[in-house]
């Protein structure tokens, strides 16, 4: 909300020309991000029945290490922000909601470093690099991302357990 208000203020006061702002908007990235939210919302409505939610809860998602791993995997399949939204139905009935959401926040944030898909910020960087003629391969990214992510997730899970 603060970013929208700040942007609106800049446009209204005309201290920045509107066409300069509009040139910086990446339409395909916004469309992809919006699509992620639509798919996650549709999956929640259609696929996540009460039976499915109960079945997944049987896998001990209340355990910090299990929840950390689940969040990390899901974050690198559908990206970290939609992963948090997708996890909501599975954790709402768990005890100690404060710790559960801290684990999800930590895991989703740090898991974003594992692969380029883990976070939309990674995709933005890769796209900007490609536009500048620099190719960041999956292997080059993962060579740094995998060990850093595993180490930070392990420390984070230990800290929150």
Explain this structure.
With 161 residues, the protein is mostly helical. It has one domain. The protein has helices spanning 2-13, 18-23, 27-46, 50-57, 64-78, 80-91, 97-111, 120-131, 138-160. α5 packs across α7 and α6 (80-91) packs antiparallel against α7. It is globular.
Q: How many domain units? A: 1
The percent range for helix content is over 70%
Measured distance between first and last alpha carbons: 33 Å
What is the ordering of alpha helices and beta strands? HHHHHHHHH
Q: Which blocks of ≥5 consecutive residues have pLDDT under 50?
A: none
* Tally of contiguous helical segments: 9
Strand content: under 5%
Biggest sheet record? none
Counted beta strands:
0
Radius of gyration: 19 Å
**Which structural class do the helices and strands define?**
mainly alpha
Shape: globular
Give the averaged pLDDT, no decimals: 84
